[in-house]
């Protein structure tokens, strides 16, 4: 019994220590920077016309999908880095999505974590919710797109978070986007 109580107290203390630096509670997120990731041979998705505007750091601009992106020839991966003090000391996080077909990736990643941010018909017409496959060729807009962390995981580290969305064609880089985000505890 004493061992059980001791273990329980230790776990509660550990949770308090972790919650002071990790986002176990609700948090806010704002975009600090966007960068276009390089492609190897053929560019399939172009993020070069996206910009951050205003004090709220909203994402505006266009995304061009240059060909239909199907699940047989196109893939996507997501990797995350953390820099708690935003001082350039980025560390790879264990949270990532390996290279998988683009349709499943959209359904899993954007459908799960981006649904509160990317509101189809409200602030974007980008079909990144995973319901359409192939992703149709076209030029799409984002208008005053603000990050909404309501559908994000409960455990996210505070400070800098870099999200690299990489797109591939036949397993070769074909475009991508890197978002640098500031995650803060909600006041």
UniProtKB/TrEMBL annotation:
InterPro entries assigned: DUF1091
Entries under Pfam families matching the protein: DUF1091 (PF06477)
Keyword Signal annotated: yes
Signal peptide (UniProt feature, chain positions): 1-23
Entry keyword set: Signal
Listed name of the protein: Uncharacterized protein LOC111604075
Species of origin: Drosophila hydei
């Amino acid at each position: 019994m004493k061992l059980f109580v001791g273990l329980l107290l230790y776990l509660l203390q550990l949770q308090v220590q972790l919650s002071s630096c990790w986002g176990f509670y609700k948090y806010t997120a704002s975009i600090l920077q966007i960068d276009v990731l390089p492609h190897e041979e053929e560019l399939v998705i172009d993020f070069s016309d996206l910009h951050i505007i205003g004090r709220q750091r909203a994402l505006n601009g266009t995304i061009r999908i240059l060909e239909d992106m199907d699940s047989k020839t196109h893939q996507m991966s997501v990797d995350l880095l953390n820099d708690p003090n935003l001082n350039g000391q980025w560390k790879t996080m264990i949270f990532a999505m390996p290279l998988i077909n683009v349709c499943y990736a959209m359904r899993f990643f954007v459908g799960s974590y981006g649904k509160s941010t990317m509101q189809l018909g409200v602030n974007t017409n980008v079909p990144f919710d995973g319901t359409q496959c192939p992703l149709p060729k076209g030029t799409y807009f984002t208008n005053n797109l603000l990050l909404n962390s309501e559908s994000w995981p409960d455990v996210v580290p505070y400070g800098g978070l870099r999200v690299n969305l990489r797109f591939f064609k036949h397993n070769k880089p074909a475009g991508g986007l890197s978002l640098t985000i500031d995650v803060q505890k909600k006041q």
